[in-house]
Amino acid sequence: MRIIDLIIKKKRGEVLSREEINFFIDGYVSGDIPDYQISSLLMAIYFQGMNKQETTDLTMAMVDSGDKVDLSAIKGIKVDKHSTGGVADTATLIVGPLVAAAGGLVAKMSGRGLGHTGGTLDKLESIPGLNISQSMERFAEIVNTCGVSVIGQTGNLVPADKKLYALRDVTGTVDNVSLIAGSIMSKKLASGSDKIVLDVKMGSGAFMKDVHGAVELARMMVDIGTLAGKETIALVTDMNQPLGNAVGNALEAIEAIEILAGKHEGDLKVVSCLLASKMLVLGGIFPTEEKAMAKINQVIENGEALKRFGQMIEMQDGDSEVVNNTDLLPSAEKIIEIKAEADGFIQAMNTEDMGMVALLLGAGRTKKTDIVDPAVGYWLKKRIGDSVKKGDILADFYVNDEKNLDESIELFKKSIIIGNNPGKKINLIYDTIS
Amino acid sequence: MRIIDLIIKKKRGEVLSREEINFFIDGYVSGDIPDYQISSLLMAIYFQGMNKQETTDLTMAMVDSGDKVDLSAIKGIKVDKHSTGGVADTATLIVGPLVAAAGGLVAKMSGRGLGHTGGTLDKLESIPGLNISQSMERFAEIVNTCGVSVIGQTGNLVPADKKLYALRDVTGTVDNVSLIAGSIMSKKLASGSDKIVLDVKMGSGAFMKDVHGAVELARMMVDIGTLAGKETIALVTDMNQPLGNAVGNALEAIEAIEILAGKHEGDLKVVSCLLASKMLVLGGIFPTEEKAMAKINQVIENGEALKRFGQMIEMQDGDSEVVNNTDLLPSAEKIIEIKAEADGFIQAMNTEDMGMVALLLGAGRTKKTDIVDPAVGYWLKKRIGDSVKKGDILADFYVNDEKNLDESIELFKKSIIIGNNPGKKINLIYDTIS
What we know:
The structure is a homodimer of 434-residue chains.
Chain A (H helix, E strand, L loop, with lengths): L2 H9 L6 H13 L4 H14 L3 H12 L15 E5 L7 H11 L4 E5 L9 H6 L10 H11 L1 E5 L6 H13 L5 H14 L4 E8 L8 H17 L4 E7 L7 E2 L1 H12 L6 H16 L6 H13 L2 H12 L18 E6 L4 E6 L1 H11 L15 E4 L6 E2 L4 E7 L5 H11 E4 L9 E5 L1
Parallel strand pairs in A: 1-4, 2-3, 4-5
Antiparallel strand pairs in A: 5-13, 6-9, 7-11, 8-10, 8-12, 9-11
């Protein structure tokens, strides 16, 4: 088999066989096939696409390129949850305790990655003392005890994805549905859970800017999971504005705690509860989403969900008192009110730029070695469709380093479109694919 | 400027500016931009194409990547001729002396390259003593004296093409009209002639298998030449069968000599005379092709064309007596007659495979270090449309090394399709683009 023949085959729009896909992934990871042939193949894949079977074969070849997590020490059906990413998406911190309190199991490993705002691990690490590096034995013990644990990835999971992603990033081949689906699903399938619930984001703050693309990606990932023998369902949800109100690591932890405590409503809570209910049904804990949702409401009201979060924090060496007193979380030196400059309605937001605002304040990282400031970010006071009067507070900025403050305020104001009418109403949930 | 932005721009089907094209060619040649980004860009170019201006900018950027030949020591309008390649295309050996004898100037530099059969330089080198390595001073002196010289390329011409072609060859990005046109025209523009006549081949023995593609390539090259300020015209001619009857280096030299001597007719002569007449008009020697053609016929009849060839051979240190006695050229040990196995008509030929037959006999090279046997090859006795009877000689094989003889005979017989009717008539000249 020669890689040049596979490049030409894909260039012509033909279908690659499992053997051919294994050949190219194995050869690339081993170093036998050079970057310049793989980048050419990736660009051909971008233009010609891959069908469901090819994408599944690609995903499995990537899974097989490295270690696989063994979660058999955790007794019961483990349901993983994954979001394709966006701004103020703190759902994991809420969903984990909800599912655990309602009787399910969440044994989640997160990657670190880059982002405008921190990832789940950064949000957790804003909690004093919390350690996301746990041994596999301790991880199993935590989940077996309190039903939920979220830790950093260990082992050499999916090296093919690391190498391919690094190449895609510099060769303009990131935005292909099969390559995105393969990248996400290979990591999900390697990390040992039994079933998977996906939250595919769509909108100005998501990778997928339209419903069509998001549904296509969701369907591809559900198909891969199914073909790989792991039941998978996907929600397609909105990312045309930040999902929660808090943007920034400790702020997002606070919002998660407030939701678990029953003190805060909004889109983030709605999406988190829906994801939790799907996970509970998939995990066999409840026969219907209605029954699962009733239980979820109960564990919020009776404080069980918040207690589970505290328990997980404590077992991961953190200060569990934060669930009762969020003042224990890092706080910024200054709070600056950002006010509306005109009357009108919030018509739209450039959510990607709103993520960039948090990055400018120090909440995210552009390279792996950047240090995240857990305290900084902003708390959004208005959402799309809200009416505003000149002088109304749009957001509170939590600031330590003022270096990029002016730039961040300017970008924030530019990102929020205020018009004379309420604008187009946007959905929160677009589709469910199972 | 970042190469990743150029990749994404071209991937989206946008037009690259001259500055952007210079950036990518300069960066690639200098080693600042790695192979894996260029191969990705090349694949994007394959799918999205390049317009006339982009292709010209690419060509000029490649020309500027290395040395340029200065032919100013040769007084008069130098017209270059280039064929995109095929089997039994000995036109250069005929066209050069014809144009010179009719009053024009041909100062041609050939590259070596790989091929089923040898290139122009190999055909010339089959003439005892002939030296294709001449200094630029001597080259000018030869052209100034006898009107024609063909030598090997000197200097570091178009290093960008060498590097790009090597990458295209292993990344499935050879077959794009802009990349092909840029590769050919950059070498033509760097090698110093004032005007260019192109012979774009079409058919089973050519890179372009259909008229549409060949015309597109021809038009693109004519446009590049024109935009670069060098008048260029192109013929699109047939390569559905070997152009001449001789396939192999000394055999092709013999056929060229016989045509120049007026002793041999056929497609090769027709195409060569047409090319020569175009070159003479382009060079300003004759106002019309009719007048040029009359002169061409005259210089064949009166022996002037053959004499010029002998003069060039002598000035390049070769045995000019070969033009009067082709027995002085290398001859093979054995001549084997290949006979038809059935009655019928020659309907079609797989010309690419017929080139491979000559390669198997030792007439060509698959890697640069291969040594070509000048004596071997075959002389085709039938052409498409001819009727054959079982036992008729299809070709005489000229053989030294019998190692691949059986394989070559088998491939030859498979390459000639004999049917019950004469089949579709094929054209010799498809189009002229100016």
